[in-house]
Amino acid sequence: MKTLALIEYFNRMLPLDEKEIAFVEEIFKERSVKKRQFILQEGEICKQNTYVLEGCFRMYLIDPHGKEHNLQFAIENWWIGDIGSFHSNTPSKLNVEATENSIILQVKKEDQLKLFTDYPKFNQIFRVLAENAMVGLQRRVLHNISSTAEERYLDFLERHPTLFNRISNVQIASYLGVTPEFLSTIRKKIAKS
Amino acid sequence: MKTLALIEYFNRMLPLDEKEIAFVEEIFKERSVKKRQFILQEGEICKQNTYVLEGCFRMYLIDPHGKEHNLQFAIENWWIGDIGSFHSNTPSKLNVEATENSIILQVKKEDQLKLFTDYPKFNQIFRVLAENAMVGLQRRVLHNISSTAEERYLDFLERHPTLFNRISNVQIASYLGVTPEFLSTIRKKIAKS
DNA sequence: CCAAGACCATAAGGTAGTTTAAGAAATGCT
DNA sequence: AGCATTTCTTAAACTACCTTATGGTCTTGG
User: Fold this and answer.
1) CATH classification of B4-121, choosing from 3.40.50.300, 2.60.120.10, 3.40.1190.20, 1.20.120.420?
2) In the predicted model, what is the mean pLDDT of residues A162-179?
3) How far apart are CA B48 and CA A55, in angstroms?
4) Which nucleotides of D are covered by protein (CB under 7 A)?
5) For the CA atoms of chain A, what is the radius of gyration?
6) What are the pLDDT digits (tens) for A115-162?
7) What is the assigned CATH class of domain A4-119?
8) Nearest to A144 among B126, B133, B177 (CB)
9) Long-range contacts for A107-110 (Cβ within 8 Å, ≥24 apart)?
10) pLDDT category, B1, cuts 50, 70, 90?
11) N or C terminus: fewer CB in 10 A for chain B?
12) How far is the CA of B181 from the C1' of C11 (A)?
């Protein structure tokens, strides 16, 4: 099994004992997903939490005008899924699509809940993960309300150097909240200076 | 002590036993804060986590041009503080200021860590809180990248009906990421229709 | 009770970002 | 290899939002 990477990931946060490792291996199921395939679509309830072993995903919203807006990307060692839907069992408004052929580990909601009740250590691990995610999201909100698109793009390049050559500019523009045409003029301007 | 509201708040999430209640009462300290007073300023390390009993706060960033950008408001039963700074012991870039005379409960970092190690139940409580906060922040990012300022304002009114009559339009504009002047024209347009 | 700040509104001119459309470049498919 | 599709760029007209400025109302404190 390929749960090894995940075990190591958890271990780096908080060392696991054998039982915990065994249970993680039991409940996380490996799955491969082809490019352009969805692991969540609007209207579905998100019943699985997903950890990316290889590949890349994007999670996006389709607005009333039919336009897509990328909320998040996920590459190796990232989590992806609609936590809101997962938590409250309500239909998701988000889509999660593979942008490359990918390999993931998925855990069902009931198994993850069992993980929390039977092995409380994971409450701490996932608390820290959620807090880290919060910090990242706060940072992004601040950027969105205080910076220009150019500043946001430069910040994106700086913070995600491994991401920007795996993802098309159309997708990056959508993540930044601008049109691809405007991102193009930004890139041109930056290249000149 | 006024920890009662906090105990009830925790109890609603996950029932506490006597020992847990006693420890919460021991480590959370009541404090009153006057309007315009700061409980965190840029450059300081955030060493306390804050729960609002009464009053209202805003957390904001000052950008390189000297402009303020509101990241978050907090009224009764909300938490406020710079989690990033709190977690990593690094100087905060944020300011937290009371916008009304307020009463808060604060817990020191070391006491909160003790809470997590000695009473693991709180890992679960704070995991759920962090996950809920994530959902709210994701929602806000999506709005920022996909909606107009008018749509964001209407959404704010809808989601925070108790907040909008306690906070000036200048502060709301800063939260939405527009100038107060533009918010004024938005409000005028809405009033007409 | 007056002065000093806050807060809100309005308007004119400016800039950041969008729309539409069309062509060039890169990539995928058979 | 060769055609189709997606991706990137450019440009012109347009819209959302910003800046600066001015005046009015409402609080607040001394």
Assistant:
1) 2.60.120.10
2) 93
3) 39
4) 6-12, 16-21
5) 18
6) 999 999 999 999 999 999 999 999 999 999 999 999 999 999 999 999
7) mainly beta
8) B177
9) A107/A27, A107/A28, A107/A29, A107/A48, A107/A49, A107/A51, A108/A27, A108/A47, A108/A48, A109/A47, A109/A48, A109/A49
10) low
11) C
12) 11
Q: Do B137 and A138 touch (CB under 8 A)?
A: yes
Q: What is the largest CA-CA distance in chain A?
A: 58
Q: Is A117 exposed, middle or buried (0-12, 13-18, 19+ CB in 10 A)?
A: exposed
The rounded distance, in Å, linking the Cα atoms of A143 and A176 is 10
For residues B81, B83, B88, B91, the Cα torsion angle rounded to the nearest 10 degrees is -40
For A69-119, what is each residue's pLDDT tens digit? 999 999 999 999 999 999 999 999 999 999 999 999 999 999 999 999 999
Domain extents in chain B = 4-121
SS3 track for chain B: CCCHHHHHHHHHHCCCCHHHHHHHHHHCEEEEECCCCEEECCCCECCEEEEEEECCEEEEEECCCCCEEEEEEECCCCEECCHHHHHHCCECCEEEEECCCEEEEEEEHHHHHHHHHHCCHHHHHHHHHHHHHHHHHHHHHHHHHHCCHHHHHHHHHHHCCCCCCCCCHHHHHHHHCCCHHHHHHHHHHHHHC
State chain B's mean pLDDT as an integer.
95
**Any CB–CB contact under 8 A between B113 and chain A?**
no
